[in-house]
Amino acid sequence: MRSTSLIVLAACGALASIPASAADADLNALREEIAQMKQAYEQRIKALESRLEKAETTVVKAEASATQAQASARQAGARPAPANAFNPEISLILQGRYKDMKEVPERTITGFWPAAGHDHGGGAGEANQRGFSLDHSELAFGANIDPWWRGQLMLGVRDDEVEVEEAWVQTLGIGHGIGLKGGRVRSGIGYLNEQHPHAWDFSDAPLMYTVMFGEHASYAQDGVQLKWVAPTETFIELGAEFGRGAEFPGTDRNKNGSNNGAIFAHVGGDLDASNNWRAGVSYLRTRARDREARFEDVGGLEAQGVFDGDSRTWLADFVWKWAPEGNAKYQNFKLQGEWFQRKEKGTLDCLDEDAVGNACDPLAVGASVLSDYKTRQSGWYLQGVYQFTPNWRAGVRYDRLDSGDRDFGINAANLVVDSYHPSRSSVMADYSWSEFSRLRLQYAHDKSMQGITDNQVTLQYIMSLGAHGAHKF
Amino acid sequence: MKLLLLVLLAIAAMPAAAALKVFATVPEWGALAREIGGDRVQVFTATTALQDAHHVDARPSLIARARSADLLIATGADLEVGWLPVVQRESGNPRIQSGQPGYFEAAQHVRLLDVPARLDRADGDVHAAGNPHIQTDPRNVLAVGEGLAARMAQLDPANAAAYRSGHAAFAERWRTQIKRWEAQAAPLKGVAVVSQHKAWPYLYDWLGMREVAALEPKPGVEPSLAHLALVRDQAATSRPRMVIRAAYNSARPAEWFAKEAKVPAVVLPFTVGAPEAADLTALFDTTVQRLLKGLGT
After folding, report:
1. Distance (Å, rounded) from C-alpha A399 to C-alpha A426?
2. What does the pLDDT read at residue A19?
3. What fold characterizes domain B186-295?
4. pLDDT of A21 higher than 60
């Protein structure tokens, strides 16, 4: 449009400059006419130009609103459909491994009450499987229930078994630093207790967790947990738990009220941008009735021991994390250690269930010997894990237990009372493609069974799928 | 038990703090809250400019600080997903739970870029809602500031007028600065660049720059030598003018590429608190200056 008006203008200009060859009057009239024409055209051109300008502005505006509409459409489209938007976050952990170790018919930790009860051990537990095996797969669901509650379910899935590892609801609305959890809850005692195996830095739990709580290496119970965070800049957290207490070292007693109690205190903070720490002490008290385990009598025959009584465990834990300027992505170091002491007091009934004629029942007539039972045992571990590139980590761990004082009363004359210091040294290296996948190689020099030195090599993978989990410190 | 009672009594006797306690997950929102609230706010920032806000532990000190916060400012868009939910839940503080007025998500207030068309972790650490690094465009800071001022006024009605006027003064200053930065950055329009991490779509969108490649093969996956070599070979045709990384990124990939492709490596502050980025204004001053320097103007 503009170029047309320019041509018209140029034509007018050409006309206006025609040499004066006609009569002056005619010429003057013609000039006037041309001048008028020129003016008229200029006016029209101006009008056209302003219309054009207006049109262009409208286009720009339209484009802008189109972009905005597109943007809001995209934002709206980015949100999931309302029907499934309320589905819980789901995450799935896949774990499996290859393990090379000695064939030991009954794997127990010498000098300690076997948490697996009177099972014959050996191939029963996952931890004892040689060669290729699947660790249990974990399935976790979690979501806010409403503005006041949140819920979470963790299932452990393995052959012929779906186990509810945790299932709890948690308050979000009490305030004053108070948190309340109810359901099946992993206890807040110690440091490692709340961590599920996929979050461990080694392929197996420290020995002390195995002797304290058995194969799961964690104390969980159906009950209530109450926590309080102090309104201070230094992290101070106090907690108490009550519940069914059915798990080792307690037993399921089918009674009203609470069967156990746990209390814990954690403190933590930042030394500077690069150094963070947490330390804690915990106490667990529970009771056992008819807690049974296999023993060996003085003559090498099998015997059963049944414990009734009180179990008290003290724990101390600390963890220190370092990363240059707090940027843990490229390089970081984690040092962690825990110590425990357990005192048990009650009675021990020595039986001969298989009527083999052991020392408690020499005539194989179903006799038994009841005695006092009093133990004081302890153990600790210390481990360090260094991540030296975004993908690679390496770690070392040392475990040591002390079977301590074991007073079996008059049954000391009937049963073998081992006195031993089980120990284990482990080194590991793992590679993570991303924060969701990890492959680990571990070597352990295991002397947890008296008279057996077991060199164990484990290759393990841990993969997490689905919702991006958030982990504790 | 006596000790516990004493502690509780001592706490009850504490005078209520006057200032609005702000817990900011990243330094830019902490700085923004200070710009709006001045000394009416007491700001704690969970991460520094030298940390990757995606890879942070839910450390005890964060839980302790979140416990008493009145306002939690997060970026959102899954940036803090690996640690913030734990901090919120463990804090025992109902005010800062998601959905409460004391929980403010900056990403809700701007238009997100790089929204993935499909969600598959095979594409790396993708964020379903879009790229969360919104603070690299000062226009986003303006938009977030508006929402934040309104939220602060809602939470602390006694000081509402002060927040509004604080925000008005900031917004006016900020608009002038945006014009200044845009004028300075005019030569950057259309410039092709390589990024180490896809952290800059908003910056490029603002200044009209073009990202021709990223050194990370997938978001959040560290650059491999093979991928670096590929990007270098592509650079022969795409002709980037510089390679850009954030202060918290490892220096090696960008430096390797800079040497191989013979382009300058430009380190941008990314957020407040990095060297030469003491506050929000300095953050963009330095960003624009370093980009221009990288261009050789």
Report:
1. 8
2. 45
3. Rossmann fold (3.40.50)
4. no
How far apart CA A227 and CA A168 sit, in angstroms, is 14
The answer to whether the CB atoms of B115 and A436 lie below 8 A apart is no
Which residue of B lies nearest to A232 if distances are taken between CA atoms?
A: B64
Q: How confident is the model at residue A410 (pLDDT cuts 50, 70, 90)?
A: very high
Span B12-106+116-179 CATH architecture: 3-Layer(aba) Sandwich (3.40)
**pLDDT above 80: residue A427:** yes
Per DSSP, the residues of A133-193 read EEPPEEEEEEEEEETTEEEEEEEEEETTEEEEEEEEEEESS-BTTEEEEEEEEE--SSSGG
Contact residues on chain B for A229, CB-CB shorter than 8 A: 63-64, 67, 90-92
What is the sign, positive or negative, of the torsion defined by CA atoms of A105, A108, A113, A117? Answer: negative
| Minimum Cα–Cα distance from A146: chain B residue | B99
- Please give the ipTM for the structure prediction: 0.88
Residue A50 has pLDDT above 70, yes or no: yes
Nearest chain A residue to B98 by CA distance is A147
Which of B122, B78, B125, B99 has the alpha carbon at shortest distance from B219?
A: B125
Q: What mean pLDDT is predicted for residues A244-263?
A: 90
pLDDT score at B205? 96
DSSP count for chain B of H helices, then E strands: 10, 8
Who's near A368: CB < 8 A, 6+ residues apart? A349, A350, A351, A352, A360, A361
Q: Which of A150, A270, A326 sits opposite B51 (nearest CB)?
A: A326
The nearest CA of chain A is from the CA of B250 a distance in Å of 8
Residue A178 has pLDDT above 90, yes or no: yes
Name the B residues in 187-206 with CB < 8 Å from any A CB: none
In this complex, the residue of B4, B67, B97 whose CB is nearest that of residue A172 is B97
Q: Looking at the complex, does the CB of residue B59 fall below 8 Å from at least one CB of chain A?
A: yes
To the nearest whole Å, the CA of B284 is away from the closest chain A CA by 23
What is the least distance, in Å, from the CA of B296 to any CA of chain A? 31
Domain residue ranges in chain B = 12-106+116-179, 186-295
CB contact under 8 A, A172 and B94: yes
Probe site for chain B from A226, A228, A229, A436 (most B CB atoms < 10 A): A229
Residue A9's pLDDT is 46
pLDDT: which is higher, A35 or A164: A164
Subunit contact B222:A391, Cβ cutoff 8 A: yes
Question: Which pair of tokens denotes residue A92?
Answer: 């799935």
Kindly list the strands in the beta sheet with B242-246, ordered across the sheet, starting from the edge strand earlier in the chain: B210-214, B192-195, B242-246, B265-268
B12-106+116-179 with B186-295: one CATH topology? yes
| Confidence (pLDDT) at B87 | 96
